[in-house]
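Dear Dr. H.,

I hope your travels went smoothly. While you were away I took the liberty of generating a structure for the chain from your last submission, since the lab meeting agenda had it listed for discussion. I wanted you to have the full record in hand beforehand rather than looking at slides cold. The sequence, exactly as received, is reproduced here:
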Amino acid sequence: MPSQALNGIRVIDLSRILAAPFCAQLLGDLGAEVIKVERPGAGDDSRSYGPPFLHDRDGNPTRDAGFYLSCNRNKRGMTVDHSKAEGAALIRELVAKSDVLIENFRTGVLAKYDLDYESLKAINPRLIYCSITGFGQDGPFAARPGYDGVFQAMCGMMSVSGLPDGVPGGGPMKVGVSMVDILTGLYASNAILAALRHRDLTGEGQFIDLALLDCGLASLSHYVQNYLISGVVPERRGNGGFGGIPSQTFKCSDREIFIVASTNKQFGALMKVLGKPQLATDPRFDQVQKRIMNRDELLAILDALFATRPADEWLAELEAADVPASAVNDVSMVFDNPQVQHRGMLTHAHHPVTGDMPLLRNPIRMSGTPIGEATPPPMLGQDNEAVLKDLLGYDEARIAALKDAAVL
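The corresponding predicted structure, in token form, is as follows:
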């Protein structure tokens, strides 16, 4: 059974790629009815972002890449060519019966088809219209295209990621995951929920203008705030943190582990595990601020100590001493973690082509309106007839005419 938290909310998802579809997926996870509208024939660009592609029951690749599958569960699927007058009119009919519209076309594109906010507000004053673009609706860059890596570079995220200059492999580095896209999707879903609450109180819809550049910059948080109050540009520290010390990876005799022992209590426990309890009271290291100031000296000592034994031996002792630590896992190891298994982060859905399909579970847990079983990402246009019949009351002849006109 799907979540009931957003039961009764209908979302028209005109978006593609990642940030905006991810936002719509979150709303679908929470129980909203999400209707994903794609281009006939081609669909969402991300369907082709493979390999890998989903395989059918016979092991043959389908047209749907893992990228697409990652951000389109819990949606119904339609194909509509909004560049045709009949297609744009159909979308306006859907909007008249909906609560939220999400789109990520370049600024001004949808206005050409009377699918911009002002046009749709006239049809449905209660509509929440969320536009996600690279640079926002205004400003000197508003018309530019952009993708996650561009924004990681522009907002400063790359400048604080990676190894320091002067060491092998040093230099700015992109975060592996499309982090600006993911963060923008989270910001967008929060904004939509707030706008729905405001509409509940006032009856008024509104326009939400979200820019990936803004969201990427906002996500730098304490890195930027530290700069604003000090004027000092943050340096790259590789796998080291910017809080207390130590907070980073260490190479054991077989593999790497990550440790955070930033408080005095944690640092003291760590020193006992390492067989150097005297370092906890050493005047160079006996306070958080001193450990930060003497970072390089302390890390050289810790590097040498951790290198003497294998990771599992250190991790067992660190856990017993209540020092936060983990092996550095790759994705293939994550689902062997007993805590990940207990929390059920791997779920499954029944896909009409492939059968059982593994999916990541939404991590939100709610006592009153829990998130239920997921429906698989829709195949291209799979719900065309059902939506047109059930929601708009179209008959077979009208649907056939739209197909003949290549609107669907």
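Two observations you may find useful: DSSP finds 16 helices and 13 strands in the chain. The domain at 10-218+341-404 is CATH 3.40.50.10540 (Rossmann fold).

With kind regards,
E. W.
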